Amino acid sequence: MINDLYGALTLGVAGAGASGIRTHIDAVTGERALEANASRIDFSGRFRQLPLDTELVSAARIVLLRLPRSLDALRDIVGLIAAHADPAVVVIAGGRLKHMSVSMNAIISEHFGRLDVSHARQKSRVLIAREPRDGRDPIPAGARVEGIEVRAYGGAFAGARLDIGTRLLLESLPDSPGGGTQSDPFIDLACGTGIIGAWMATRHPDAHVYACDQSSIAVASARATMRANGIDDRVEVVRDDMLGERPSDSASLIALNPPFHSSAAVTDLIAPRMFTDVARVLRPGGQLWCVWNSALKYRPLLERAIGPTQQVARNAKFTVTVSTRH
Question: 129: closest CA among 164, 89, 85?
């Protein structure tokens, strides 16, 4: 099972009597939801949750895949399956029509000799792939951006490039920030490929950085970014739901480019939860440097959750603010 959300696919096949189930969910929140849902119906222990790696697909005979929206992510997944699954594997990949494209067929066909396409049903369709060939393990894309080596596995936000919001935030970060010690590291929250954390670590050669993201693809990308820049000894990259692993009152500076997507849906519900967690982790007087789409009007939320908030930069689309914890 690959790219399940909260366990519907995993628990569905478990309920149908399948055994030896291995499942991968990118979001740590999805993993926790699956465990909670399994416990609720007494299905705990009927599956193993694994990273997107060789063990997940080794000798697999059936793979159920919820199609990712990212074509690069799809290429990584089908290449991995073709490299390590049973030669007789059948891959059943489903998705909503509005999120599917003929480019997906072409990518799957790079690694499978036979591809059958189902009729549409309830605005969804299934692609069935057989005869694996030319498999390969995922390799992160790479680029040098603003003096930083960036690495990105398929599906990581912005890929191996610098999005315009993050660029504005980097241009605005203070030259002499507080913190940066082992006990009070700079924090790159929702780190994605880790470019903000890498930027802070390279510009402050003695600084320690804590980078975290709920996505396993993001964490793998950020770790590859830190290794590529030779700073992995000073940057800790953690997979976490927001700042759940951080103690309260433990940071003087947090940088954040909050996501406004949950899977395919656009939402403004993620950032307020992040701001609340930031307020818990910041020391009194500590600062959150945040970039956000100006149309979202986060400033009142920041002031309520954290404290006095000032605009420090703005362009046609994005705003950068600094909020100081009460």
Answer: 89
Query: Phi/psi class of residue 316: alpha, beta or left (left: φ > 0; alpha: ψ in -120 to 50)?
Result: alpha
212 and 243 share a domain?
yes
Average predicted confidence (pLDDT) for the chain: 96
Mean pLDDT of 203-217: 97
**Phi, psi for residue 122 in degrees, rounded to 5:** 50, 45
Query: Which residue range forms the structural domain that includes residue 112?
Result: 8-132
Is the pTM above the cut of 0.70? yes
Q: Do the bridges between strand 309-314 and strand 90-96 make them parallel or antiparallel, or are there none, so unpaired?
A: unpaired
pLDDT tens column, 16-75: 999 999 999 999 999 999 999 999 999 999 999 999 999 999 999 999 999 999 999 999
| Contact between 254 and 286 (Cβ < 8 Å) | yes
In a domain, 101, yes or no: yes
Residue 64, domain CATH: 3.40.50.150
Structure tokens, 200: 């802070």
For 281, the token pair is: 């982790």
pLDDT tens digits, 246-304: 999 999 999 999 986 555 554 567 899 999 999 999 999 999 999 999 999 999 999 99
Last residue of a domain, one of 106, 132, 158: 132
Distance CA 274, CA 22 (A): 31
| Residue 201 φ then ψ, to 5° | -70, -35
Neighbours of 121 (CB within 10 A): 10
Question: Would 2 be classed as within a structural domain?
Answer: no
Asked if pLDDT for residue 121 goes beyond 70, the answer is yes
Helix axes 195-203, 216-228, angle to 10 degrees: 30
Note whether residue 3 is domain-resident: no
What pLDDT does residue 269 have? Answer: 78
Asked if residues 254 and 278 have their Cβ atoms less than 8 Å apart, the reply is yes
User: How many domains does one find in the chain?
Assistant: 2
End-to-end alpha carbon distance in the chain: 46
